Amino acid sequence: MVPAISLHAHAPDAGEPLEHYWSAVVGAGRANEGLRADWQRQLAEVQAACGFRYVRFHGLFHDDMFVYTEREDGTPVYNFQYVDALFDALLDAGVRPFVELGFSPRALARETETVFWWGAHGAPPTDLGRWSELVGRTVRHWVARYGLDEVRRWYFEVWNEPNLRGFFRGTRSEYLELYAATARAVKDVDAGLRVGGPATSNFVPDTRFDGETEDFTVHTATFGVDLDTLDWKPVWLDAFLSYCAANDLPADFVSAHPYPTDWALDEHGQGQKLTRGVDATPRDLAEIRRLVDASPFPDAEIHLTEWSSSSSPRDHAHDTVPAATFVVRTVLHGLGTVDSLAYWTFTDVFEEGGAGDEMFHGGFGMITLQGVPKPTFHAYRMLAGLGDRLLARTDGAVVTRDARGRVQALAYHYPAEEPRSVPASFDDRAVAERTAATGTPRRLELRVDGVASGASFQVEVLDETHGNAIAAWHALGAPTEPTRAETAALDRAARATAVRTVTAADDGVLALDVELAPWSVLALTQLA
Predict the structure, then answer these.
(1) Confidence bin at 217 (pLDDT 50/70/90)
(2) Model-level pTM greater than 0.85?
(3) CATH fold of the domain at 5-13+393-526
(4) What average pLDDT does this structure show over 61-88?
(5) For residue 268, what pLDDT band results from cuts at 50, 70 and 90?
(6) What's the pLDDT score for residue 265?
(7) How would you write 304-354 as a 3-class SS string?
(8) Buried b (16+ CB within 10 A) or exposed e, 252-271
(9) What is the CA 161 to chain-centroid distance, rounded?
C-alpha cells in the first residue's frame, strides 16, 4: 500500500517566511516575439494569474530589433524604437525586464554562422570597445526613459549559455573578457545597477568538462555511470567567480540553467539523451547555494534563468499533467535555496526551432500559441495562491498562511513508480502517455486546526480529467487544424479544474481526507 501524505498544521503558528522565488522570473523566446499582440496578451494573463515579476528573453540586440547598425563608413547607428515598444508593454503589464545582454548584432559579430531558426549571432563582438559603447548607450537610454530608480530594479545578465559553441563561438577566457567589458559598461552608467552571469547551460558531473570550451554537453551513458551517483556542478561558475574576484569585477548575481538532463540542446553532443532523478533540480539548487556561500561573493543573488523538465522545444511531456506536477514538486523541494527559478517559457509563441507544427507540439510554453492554458499554467497559478508564511510541510504537501490570516495548502502526488524527472517524449507522445499512466492512487490526510469555526475552503484539483488541455483535445478527436469554435471549447475545458467547497468544524478544525490520483495537484484555499 502506498503510504498516505499526512500533514498537520496549526493556523495561528508564526511559521517561517515563504519567498515565492518560483514566480520571480519567467522566460520567453526572443525580444521580437514580444512585439506580437498574442505574446503580450499571454504575458498579461500569466502575470495576473501567476504573479511573475520579471521576464527574460534572448535577442535584445538581434538585427530584427534594429538597436545597432552601421553606416557604410562604419559609424554606429542606434535605434531604440522597437525596444521602447516592447519594454513599455512589459511595464504596462506589471512585469520588469530581466535583461539578457546578447547576442551580437550582425555588424559586430566576429563570425557569420548563426544559431536558431531566427539566426542569432552567437559569435562574440569583434570590437569590445564598440560593444561596451552599445551596452552603455542602451542602458543610458533606459535610465533617461524610465528613470534611474526603475532601472535599478532590473537585472543585467551577460549573454546566454556561453559554454555552448553555438551560443558563444569563443572560449571561456573570451567570455570572461566580454563579461568584464559589459559589467564595467553597465556600472559606468550607475554603480547601483545589478549585473551578473555566467548564464551557463546545465549542470555537469564534477569539473570534467569545465574547460575553455563546452561545445557539447555530457553524455554519462558513454561512461556507464548511474546519473544520480555523480556529483553535478554548474558549468564555469567557479572560474567566473574567481575571475571576478581577481579582477575587481562586480557579480551582483550568478546565473545558470539547471535542466534535469545530461544534455543541453538537440544539436549538441552525441549519444543517448538521459533524464536525471526526480531530485536533480533541488540538489542542484542546494549545490549552487553552497558554492556561492563559500565564494568571494557570498551575498550574490542566485537566479536560475532557464529551467524546465527538459531543454527541448519539441518534448511532448511539456504539454502534460506530469509536467505540472514536476513543477510543483521541484519548487516545494527547493524552498529557501535560490532567489529565482525561471520556467522556460510562459508561451508557445517561440521560434528557436521555427513555429510549432500543431497546437500541442511539445513546446516549452505554459500556454499554447492559440492561448489555451496547459497544466503547467495551473501549477504556477496554484503556487501563486500560497501565502507568505510556511506553517508546515512534508514530502507531498505544504500549509501556508497569507497576510490576511487565511490558510492555504498545496498537495501533489508524484508517483514513486517514476523515480526520474519527467522523461522527455521526443518523436511522438508515446513516452508522455506512458508517464501519465504510471502510478497508483495515494491518500491525502490534511488537518489544520485553529481556524474560525465554520470557515469555508475551496478545494481545487488538477488531474488527467480536469484542467488538462491535451485530454480535452483528444476528446474532440485530436483535430490537426482546430476551428475557432473547437479552440474556444478547448480553452474552456483547459480552464475547468475540479472545484468544490469544504467547511471547518465547529471546533475550528479543517480535516481533509481524500484520494489523490497519480500526478494530481490539489490546492486548498480559505475563502474570505
Answers:
(1) very low
(2) yes
(3) Immunoglobulin-like (2.60.40)
(4) 96
(5) very low
(6) 56
(7) EEEECCCCCCCCHHHHCHHHHHHHHHHHHHCCCCCCEEEECCCCCCCCECE
(8) bbbbbbbbbbbbbbeebbee
(9) 15
The grid coordinates listed for 388 are 507568505
Mean pLDDT of 26-32: 97
Domain 19-390: give its CATH code.
Answer: 3.20.20.80
User: Would you give the distance in Å from CA 3 to the centre of its chain?
Assistant: 31
Is residue 262 pLDDT above 90, yes or no?
no
Cα–Cα distance, 355 to 117 (Å, whole number): 9
HSE-up (13 A, CA, CB side) for residue 316? 17
Q: Which residues belong to the active site?
A: 161, 306
Read off the C-alpha cell for 101. 545582454
Alpha helices in 415-504 (DSSP H): 430-436, 469-475, 484-494
Q: Tell me: pLDDT of 269 over 70.
A: no
Rounded distance, CA 485 to CA 228, Å?
47
Angle between helices 128-146 and 172-189 (to 10 degrees): 40
Contact assessment for residue 155 and residue 193, using Cβ atoms and an 8 Å cutoff = no
Q: What is the pLDDT of residue 83?
A: 98
Q: Helix or strand or coil: residue 220?
A: helix
Cα–Cα distance for residue pair 91/53, rounded to 1 Å: 10
Cell numbers at residue 501, please?
467547497
Instruction: Tell me what pLDDT residue 224 has.
Output: 55
Domain ranges in the chain?
A: 5-13+393-526, 19-390
Tell me the three cell numbers of residue 75. Answer: 559609424
Distances (CA, A) of 146 to 44, 101, 132, 149: 20, 18, 21, 8
